[in-house]
């Protein structure tokens, strides 16, 4: 035996000197990259591999539907319990006593409010006039008929 053959045979026999790809001898022969064989149900033909979720995936898979369900429940609860009704029946409604006033040239809502109810704050009377007449921007024109709340 020559020195190089003896060195190669002792080198190959040593367990520490075996290369990591020596376990996949058939992959070296075919020229394909070495891939370890899978064991268990995943390597059986005809069955798809089992789905594995990460922790984040489980949180998203469970948490997202729960958040959507909570939002739906809160929306329905708000819709069913909304206090948007003025009254349950007509007897609960009251009519605001009002008189009709014609706007004179140079007259403003402030002057009308001061004449109609001098004891109240003019801002409150103006708010009532705007609401009763559905005025936009609080502007009035001479000759316009306004309903103003009566004392």
Keywords:
mainly alpha; 42% helix; 7% strand; 151 residues; two-stranded antiparallel ribbon
Task: Describe the protein's architecture and organization.
This protein is 42% helix and 7% strand. Helix 4 crosses helix 5. It has 151 residues and is mainly α. The chain is rod-shaped and about 95 Å long.
Output the radius of gyration.
44 Å
Low-confidence stretches: none
Biggest sheet architecture:
2 strands, antiparallel
Widest sheet, order of strands: 1-2
How many strands appear in the DSSP assignment? 2
Query: Would you tell me the overall average pLDDT?
Result: 76
- The run of helices and strands is HHHEHHE
Net shape: rod-shaped
**Helix content range:** 40-55%
Structural class: mainly alpha
How many DSSP helices? 5
Distance between the termini: 128 Å
Note the beta-strand portion.
5-15%
In short:
This protein has 151 residues and is mainly alpha-helical. The protein is built from five helices and two strands.
Write the layout of secondary structure elements.
Layout: H1 3-13, H2 25-30, H3 55-80, E1 98-102, H4 109-116, H5 122-133, E2 145-149
Antiparallel strand pairs: 1-2
Helix pairs in contact: 4-5
